[in-house]
Write a structure and sequence with these properties.
The chain is α+β, with helices and mostly antiparallel strands. It has three domains: about 40-150, Beta-Lactamase; about 215-295, Signal transduction histidine kinase, dimerisation/phosphotransfer (DHp) domain (Helix Hairpins), CATH 1.10.287; about 300-445, 2-Layer Sandwich (Heat Shock Protein 90), CATH 3.30.565. Helix content is about 55%, strand content about 15%. The chain has twelve helices and twelve strands. The protein has helices at about 10-35, 45-65, 70-75, 100-110, 155-160, 160-200, 215-265, 270-295, 305-325, 340-360, 405-410, 415-425; strands at about 40, 85, 115-120, 125-135, 135-145, 300-305, 325-330, 335-340, 365-370, 375-380, 430-435, 440-445. Helix 6 runs parallel beside helix 7 (about 215-265), helix 8 packs parallel to helix 12 (about 415-425) and helix 10 (about 340-360) runs antiparallel to helix 12. Adenosine-5'-triphosphate binds near residues 401 and 413.
């Protein structure tokens, strides 16, 4: 794996997280700095107005040398606009009262050599600067109303942490969603391909995934995997057809020898048995080939009208059941469309119906359940039940419940395997149950896949 590649998924995720955390930390550090209500150094114009104030008061004191501290505060002609506050050098307030914010500002800013400023929602606080009154140094602070009262967006956000959180979510959600979508997009493409391959479409072409990251490597590993599965299946099919071909020749010779023997010695019970077994072996070979061909067949899905598709099958089944003196009951069919592999679906349903007719005592009945996601076909028949412990075994190839009983009914024991394979290919399932003293086989087809 090339970790140094800038396109590697590892690097992408690492850098994205890293940038996001860096961005968040920067915003968290910067936001309080953008808040004008912090203590800040004064500007030249602030210093000028502080100096003016100092000189004005100092002149006033010179004109009225006997004025007291308190009178000094209240006699300021512009106090309607500006509020003046005085403290001694130790920070003790001379005014009777001061608003809480001013008291806090006095505590925060006590050095006349480095006057500070604090802007609040309605007022700005400035100070201190030194004045001399009665030979006693005093510190002068003042506050004045702000020109515009409206709260800045940042101040508003800082005062409402929940809103700040909400804004952060609002900004980061689309960003993170896009990032997650972008990083997982090739994985979704691969998932689509994997689903198709799982349904037997081994020739599905792989998407071209740019950026040579881990997902591209995964795609090429999957490609190789599909190729080797395809090879293995081809080999298996070749082996099966070779074996059946090799078996067919001695079987044909056996049949020939049997016919000659019959001619010479006449019919006998033993010869009839041999003939029956030869027929069974031939049938088994044919069905085995059928099963392996079905697993590899490149069939494509089609939209089919369910009622037309099933009606044909049910009419044939009704005929066959009646021939055997049994009753076949099926419901009125809805006209809906279903997306299936027509031949596979046909062979699955036909195999189950044939079993039902074969093993029924008298009656075979069909039920169809249709909902938004799936269509379930339930095929019931009376007759001998399947022991609970065997309900899943019967789907195994060549598995037959009662060899001596079913020897007479013929068949290779491959019908249910064929049906199960077809259902898997549809992404559906098949299962057996004993309900109300009847054997019931369910075939579930997903409606959309
Ligand atoms: N409707 C049913 N009622 C009772 N037993 C059943 C039913 N369907 C299947 N079985 C049992 O499951 C076994 C396997 O069925 P499957 O269709 O695979 O083989 P088969 O019918 O014997 O032969 P084939 O279908 O290959 O001609 C059957 O031999 C039978 O014992
Ligand atoms: Mg069968």
């Amino acid at each position: 794996m090339q970790w140094n590649s800038l396109n590697s998924l590892f690097i992408k995720i690492f850098i994205s997280f890293w940038l996001l955390i860096l961005l968040l930390t920067t915003v968290l550090i910067l936001i309080p700095k953008l808040d004008g209500r912090q203590l800040q150094s004064i500007t030249t114009s602030d210093f000028k107005s502080l100096k003016n104030q100092q000189q004005r008061i100092q002149k006033f004191i010179e004109r009225h040398p006997n004025i007291t501290h308190k009178q000094l505060i209240h006699l300021d002609p512009r106090r309607t606009l500006r509020s003046v506050y005085l403290t001694d050098l130790s920070g003790r307030l001379i005014n009777d009262r001061a608003p809480r914010k001013m008291r806090q500002f006095i505590l925060d800013s006590q050095s006349p050599n480095k006057p500070l400023k604090k802007v609040h929602k309605r007022k700005t606080y400035l100070g201190p600067i030194q004045i001399i009154h009665n030979q006693q140094p005093l510190l002068l602070y003042f506050s004045y109303p702000n020109q515009k009262e409206s709260l800045e967006l940042i101040e508003w956000l800082i005062d409402n942490p929940l809103l700040l959180l909400f804004t952060a979510l609002l900004v980061s959600t689309p960003l993170c969603a896009f990032l997650a979508w972008h990083l997982t997009q090739p994985l979704r493409q691969l998932q689509d391909v994997a689903n198709k391959v799982a349904q037997g479409e081994l020739d599905t072409s792989f998407p071209v995934i740019k950026n040579s990251d881990e997902i591209t490597q995964l795609a090429s590993s999957m490609k190789l995997m599909v190729l080797s599965v395809k090879n293995m299946l081809n080999n298996q099919q070749r082996l099966l057809s070779d074996i059946s071909h090799e078996l067919r020749s001695p079987l044909t010779r056996l049949g020939l020898a049997l016919a000659i023997n019959k001619k010479r010695a006449g019919e006998s019970k033993e010869l009839q048995r041999i003939e029956l077994e030869i027929e069974r072996i031939e049938l088994m070979i044919a069905e085995m080939l059928n099963l392996s061909r079905m697993q590899l067949s490149p069939e494509y899905k089609e939209d089919i009208a369910l009622n037309e598709f099933l009606e044909e099958l049910f009419l044939d089944a009704e005929f066959e059941a009646n021939e055997n003196g049994k009753t076949f009951i099926y419901p009125v069919l809805d006209s809906i469309t279903i997306n299936i592999y027509p031949e596979l679906a046909y062979s699955a349903i036909e195999n189950i119906i044939r079993n039902a007719i074969k093993y029924a005592e008298k009656t075979i009945s069909i039920e169809i359940t249709i909902n938004k996601k799936e269509i379930i076909l339930s095929i019931k028949n009376d007759g001998p039940l399947i022991p609970e412990s065997e309900l899943s075994n019967i789907f195994r190839p060549f598995y037959r419940l009662n060899e001596s009983r079913e020897r007479e009914t013929g068949g290779a024991g491959l019908g249910l395997s064929i049906a199960e394979n077809a259902m898997f290919k549809h992404g559906g399932k098949i299962w057996a149950e004993n309900i109300d003293k009847q054997v019931c086989m369910h075939l579930q087809f997903p409606r959309f896949s």
